[in-house]
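hiii, so i know i said id send this last week but things got crazy w the move. better late than never?? heres the sequnce for the chain we talked about at the cafe, plus the structure i predicted for it. fair warning i was half asleep when i ran it
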Amino acid sequence: MNPQFVSIDPKAKIGANVQIGSFVSISENVEIGDGTIIMPNATILPGARIGKNCKIFPNAVISAIPQDLKFVGEETTAEIGDNTTVRECATINRGTASKGKTIVGSNCLLMAYSHVAHDCKL
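okay and structure toks below
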């Protein structure tokens, strides 16, 4: 990929051989494993932990704040295991103080427009 207009926070940890498409935004406090592909227009927000050899398709949003009125900005994560595919427009919200993290395991497929809510474990 030949990325254009990419925003990567200097504090983000990006593994080896990660491909990042155009118009991708990667925030601080993000870790992306080796060989992962982040396709155009994906948004990776604070607290994202993405494993090795994952595929994040266009317009996916990883680690947005929870849709929970009790959330008050606590530091939590959204963790994705190795070899997982997150298709177009899927969203994964980070955890709340209750559990601290949302977990999507390895070798998963989240289909287009799916949503993984805060504190879920797949």
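btw The CA atoms of residues 95 and 118 lie 5 Å apart. thought thatd interest u
miss u guys!!
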